[in-house]
Each structure stands twice: as structure tokens, then as C-alpha cells.
Design goal:
Layout (H helix, E strand, L loop, with lengths): L1 E7 L4 H9 L8 E7 L15 E10 L1 H15 L7 E7 L3 E2 L6 E2 L4
Antiparallel strand pairs: 1-3, 1-4, 2-3, 5-6
Length: 108
């Protein structure tokens, strides 16, 4: 099991969500508002705030779905402009369901 973590432009969220829902067996995701900056920074003359608004997606997926989810996010979030975002794949060693107490190394 892996975690796919993506930071994307807020206006791309609906399009990304629709594309991910087309993947058979898509396990679902969590979305959070966040702020940050990378190499490209904005400058405000009076109050310097380099932070840009982004949406953070967290998806825990079985290994066989990781590549298609990763590629779908990259393709759908792309606009060709700086600041489109980043996508990461992280190892998720174990998970558990609070409702049932079920604990499994491959829990999706």
C-alpha cells in the first residue's frame, strides 16, 4: 500500500476528482486546504506573503493502482504554468479501520 500525496491548484480539483472516479476500484481520498511556496514565489509590495493557496490530496491505494492514480493526477492537474503542483508516492506500512478495529498491512 502507498500514499499518493498531491498539491494542486484549487481550480483543478473538480477535474482531478472526476478523472480519479473513473478509475475502477479507486479507494477514495481526503482533501485539505493548504498554503506554501516552491521555487516560484509571489511578491506583494506592502505585505510580503510568498504563500499560494493549494489543495492537498491524500490517497491511500493498493500497489496495483498507484501508477494509474499518479499518472491521472499528473495529466489532469497540468496546465502548463508554473505552480501547477507536485505529486509524491510514499510508503504506507500499515493501516486500520476505526469502525471495525480491523488492522492490515494492505488495508485499502
Amino acid at each position: 500500500m502507498k500514499e499518493i500525496r498531491a498539491y494542486v491548484q484549487p481550480h483543478k480539483l473538480s477535474q482531478i476528482t472526476m478523472a480519479l472516479l473513473e478509475i475502477p476500484g479507486f479507494p477514495g481520498m481526503s482533501i485539505m486546504d493548504c498554503e506554501g511556496f516552491g521555487r516560484e514565489r509571489t511578491e506583494h509590495s506592502q505585505d510580503y506573503k510568498p504563500f499560494l493557496l493549494k489543495k492537498r490530496l491524500e490517497i491511500f491505494a493498493p500497489d496495483d493502482l498507484v501508477e494509474i492514480i499518479f499518472e491521472t493526477i499528473l495529466r489532469t492537474a497540468h496546465s502548463g504554468h508554473h505552480g501547477d503542483g507536485k505529486v509524491y508516492i510514499l510508503d504506507a506500512q500499515e493501516g486500520g479501520r476505526v469502525s471495525s478495529g480491523e488492522r492490515d498491512k494492505d488495508l485499502g
